[in-house]
Design a protein that fits this description.
Layout lengths: L10 E5 L4 E2 L2 E2 L1 H14 L3 E3 L12 H15 L6 E3 L5 H14 L3 E5 L8 H13 L5 E5 L1 H4 L5 H8 L4 E6 L4 H8 L7 E4 L5 H6 L4 E4 L6 H12 L3 H17 L7 H9 L19 H19 L10
Parallel strand pairs: 1-4, 1-10, 5-6, 6-7, 7-8, 8-9, 9-10
Antiparallel strand pairs: 2-3
Amino acid sequence: MHNHRLDHLRGSMVALVTPFRDGRIDEEAFLHLCERQITAGTSVLVPCGTTGEAPTLSHAEQILLIGLAVRAAKGRVPVLAGAGSNCTATTIELVRHAEALGADAALCITPYYNRPSQEGLFRHFEAIQASTTLPIVLYDVPKRTGVSLELDTIVRLAQLPNIVGLKDASGDMAKAGRLRYSVPSEFLRLCGDDALLGDHLALGSQGCISVTANITPALCAEMHRAWQDHDYGRFSRINAALSPLNGALFFESNPIAVKWALSQLGLVSDELRLPLTSLSSCHHPQVLRALAGILPFEARAFAHDDCLGQVA
């Protein structure tokens, strides 16, 4: 049966940062970030993921942020709520809170540190999806978790009623290619690495959960529209123009650089929670150069001016 809740989980989806002020969540800044994204054309808000510093958020803070995102969205765009943990029972609790708050789907990372087997991963997600009516998107990022969802496990999970997609941040394009022909066509395959977006879209991916969209939401949205319109030249020009920024945002562990960049735009404080620390001063010039190179085009895209001919 077709799940209409999934129709809009595609395109440019932003992995939102979590702004802090004096150690606490800056709710006003977070709501402003959400509104800026929606106005710029972002398709989906994704709070409480890696970019949102989920590992150093309390459960109460995660619940607060999901509620704020739902409030900001006002039904205009879906909210894909980060609700993962390395404890199955805790994940179920977070997913149920996300459902009660009105999130449209939940993004659940593979359990980290305890390194379960493939059968353990299957049972973890099987239990989560059985506990809710909320659509569940798997999140595979082995370089952070120490465990990878193997193709056969993803295929098994895709057969479960509430497992609806995968955020693929594995970097394994061979597996992504095989997955395309191993799961139902309605199963969402979402890029989790801005630098690999073109490769994923070429393999039929429906969208990207993006770090870069925090900085350039209008250009990222326009890039996805270009792909959907089969204007691959326009897509390639924007993608190439964003490449220096994509690289600069990963000079240090995400979200260190993106938060510093947003602070330079006056949108958030660059405050992070330990053990993350602010961007090293040696990287400031490189990030500033990347911002200076792309922000004029972002401003024109935000204003819906035709800047694409000037993006080389």
